[in-house]
Amino acid sequence: MTEFNNVSIVKQANVYFDGKVNSRTILFADGSRKTLGFMQPGEYTFNTGAPELMEILAGELDVRLPGSDAWQTVKGGESFDVAGNAEFTMKVRVASDYCCSFLG
């Protein structure tokens, strides 16, 4: 899917890590939500509430998922799932565009 139709957008940005990670929240008629964002190179640790699907639209990063000590490389066009109520770390190598879908 390259675009979203019939959605509402929260005007206020989600800004993390001194502005190095930014996103906007997209709200759908069925009650689901996603964020569309951009990450500058750096290392970032996030905590989840609900399970998430992270789609990397462009860029490249390494991710360490909950319960693993291994790093996995993810490039534009690839995605990964994160469990709810968990912590994960990303090492963003190249400025990266992403879409995060909240699944729960």
Automatic annotation (TrEMBL):
Its EC number is 2.4.2.1, 2.4.2.2. Keywords: Glycosyltransferase, Transferase. Coiled coil: none annotated. It catalyses: a purine D-ribonucleoside + phosphate = a purine nucleobase + alpha-D-ribose 1-phosphate; inosine + phosphate = alpha-D-ribose 1-phosphate + hypoxanthine; cytidine + phosphate = cytosine + alpha-D-ribose 1-phosphate; adenosine + phosphate = alpha-D-ribose 1-phosphate + adenine. GO terms for molecular function: guanosine phosphorylase activity; purine-nucleoside phosphorylase activity; thymidine phosphorylase activity; uridine phosphorylase activity. Pfam families: Ppnp. CDD domains: cupin_PpnP-like (cd20296). GO terms for cellular component: cytosol. Catalyzes the phosphorolysis of diverse nucleosides, yielding D-ribose 1-phosphate and the respective free bases. Can use uridine, adenosine, guanosine, cytidine, thymidine, inosine and xanthosine as substrates. Also catalyzes the reverse reactions. Belongs to the nucleoside phosphorylase PpnP family. PANTHER family: PYRIMIDINE/PURINE NUCLEOSIDE PHOSPHORYLASE, PYRIMIDINE_PURINE NUCLEOSIDE PHOSPHORYLASE. This is Pyrimidine/purine nucleoside phosphorylase. It comes from Methylomonas koyamae.
